[in-house]
């Protein structure tokens, strides 16, 4: 990697020659401005507003604009004469716990590389001291014409430096918090905790820029002359008043489903209840169900056997035995009725003949 700055780390009386290397890179897709009529590229030219002529880079200098619009020229020689002890030095001023650094101060990130063989030993000494202390180093350094604040920490086996904004460059969050008192219920907090637990952790290396990939696909399609279909815009629900509890519950279920926890998807859902339909058959005059109703009930019983109780050979035998016993009882009852009926009619005939004889 190409270094962007050469200097030294000042660690007390120890000086460590280093090279400054960019630790990050920008993968954003850049566009050019063109003239829509003919596709020609639009370029910006530096023009003096007094003579309206284009000016080359060698003819351009620096100036500070005063409040009344007066330009005060500042040359590179003027800046070079300023007392700037950190011009070529990263001067460590303190060692503090990492949690004392406000993330809002974080700026650009760099790797510090040992410059030459003699720098290897003091470089390793500083790296191991930072590891053992579990602290970070706060330092001052100069880059691109201004003094800056930095934080040194260990990343793997390398010392990295994060540029920091000065404390007075952090704006206070005045007027940003919601107006008025907002009450959050325990049930809402419990659901928020459940959603956080369900989402869990993520491998940062698995995250990628979906928008950049879509732009690359768009460019490739246009370059090959393909027709680009507009993407379907999803409803983000922005600006709508929502039921917070319902939204949290749905979020938890969606998170579980996306992570393959299908077994938990139905938790808390209500089962559908269907009313039982009554039969339309009317009872007979004797108070018993009519033959038509009995046939329908029997047919329904045959069509929908019980699901919870499986049929077994013993059950079939028991049913057959019961049917036979019922048939025998029915036959005996019918015989008794027939006997009593015939006996009663014979007695009546005998009594009638006796009355006629006596008369």
DSSP summary, beta strand count: 9
User: Considering DSSP H and I runs of 4 or more, what fraction of the residues is helical?
Assistant: 25-40%
Give the overall form: extended
Q: State Rg.
A: 47 Å
How many angstroms separate the termini?
Answer: 146 Å
- Average pLDDT, all residues: 76
Question: So how many helices?
Answer: 7
Features:
359 residues, alpha+beta, disordered C terminus, single chain, seven-stranded mixed beta barrel, two-stranded antiparallel ribbon
Question: What is the topology?
Answer:
Layout lengths: L2 E9 L2 E9 L39 E4 L5 E4 L1 H5 L8 E9 L8 E9 L5 H14 L1 E9 L2 E10 L2 E7 L21 H14 L10 H14 L20 H15 L32 H13 L9 H46 L1
Parallel strand pairs: 1-5
Antiparallel strand pairs: 1-2, 2-6, 3-4, 5-7, 6-9, 7-8, 8-9
Helix pairs in contact: 3-5
Protein architecture, described:
This protein is of the alpha+beta class and 359 residues long. It has seven helices and nine strands. The protein has helices at residues 76-80, 120-133, 186-199, 210-223, 244-258, 291-303, 313-358; strands spanning 3-11, 14-22, 62-65, 71-74, 89-97, 106-114, 135-143, 146-155, 158-164. The strands form two sheets. Strands 1-2-6-9-8-7-5 form a seven-stranded mixed β-barrel. Strands 3-4 form a two-stranded antiparallel ribbon. The protein is extended and about 65 Å long.
In short:
With 359 residues, the protein is α+β, with helices and mostly antiparallel strands. 34% of the residues lie in helices and 19% in strands.
């Amino acid at each position: 990697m190409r270094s962007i700055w050469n200097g030294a780390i000042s660690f007390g009386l120890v000086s460590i020659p280093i090279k400054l290397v960019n630790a990050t890179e920008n993968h954003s897709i850049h566009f050019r401005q063109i003239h829509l009529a003919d596709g020609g590229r639009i370029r910006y030219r530096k023009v003096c507003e007094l003579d309206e002529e284009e000016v080359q880079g060698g003819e351009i200098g620096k100036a500070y604009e005063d409040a009344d619009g007066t330009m005060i020229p500042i040359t590179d020689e003027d800046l070079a004469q300023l007392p700037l002890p950190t011009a070529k030095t990263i001067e460590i001023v303190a060692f503090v716990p990492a949690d004392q650094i406000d993330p809002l101060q974080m700026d650009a990130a760099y790797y510090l590389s040992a410059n030459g063989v003699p720098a290897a030993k003091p470089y390793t000494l500083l790296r191991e001291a930072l590891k053992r202390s579990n602290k970070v180093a706060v330092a001052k350094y100069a880059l691109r014409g201004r003094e800056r604040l930095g934080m040194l920490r260990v990343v793997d086996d390398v010392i990295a430096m994060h540029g920091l904004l000065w404390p007075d460059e952090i704006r206070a969050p005045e007027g940003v918090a919601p107006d008025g008192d907002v009450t959050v219920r325990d049930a809402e907090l419990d659901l928020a905790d459940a959603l956080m637990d369900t989402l869990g952790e993520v491998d940062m290396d698995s995250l990628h820029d979906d928008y950049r990939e879509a732009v690359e696909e768009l460019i490739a399609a246009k370059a090959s002359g393909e027709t680009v279909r507009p993407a379907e815009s999803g409803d983000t629900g922005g600006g709508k008043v929502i039921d917070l509890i319902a939204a949290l519950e749905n979020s938890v279920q969606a998170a579980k489903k996306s992570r393959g926890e299908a077994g938990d998807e139905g938790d808390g859902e209500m089962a559908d209840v269907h009313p039982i339909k009554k039969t339309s058959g009317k009872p007979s005059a004797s108070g018993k169900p009519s033959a038509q109703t009995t046939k329908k009930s029997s047919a329904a019983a045959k069509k929908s056997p019980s699901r919870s109780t499986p049929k077994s050979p013993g059950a079939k035998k028991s049913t057959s035995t019961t049917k036979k016993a019922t048939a025998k009882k029915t036959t005996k009852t019918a015989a008794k009725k027939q006997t009593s009926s015939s006996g009663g009619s014979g007695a009546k005939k005998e009594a009638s003949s006796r009355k006629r004889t006596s008369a």
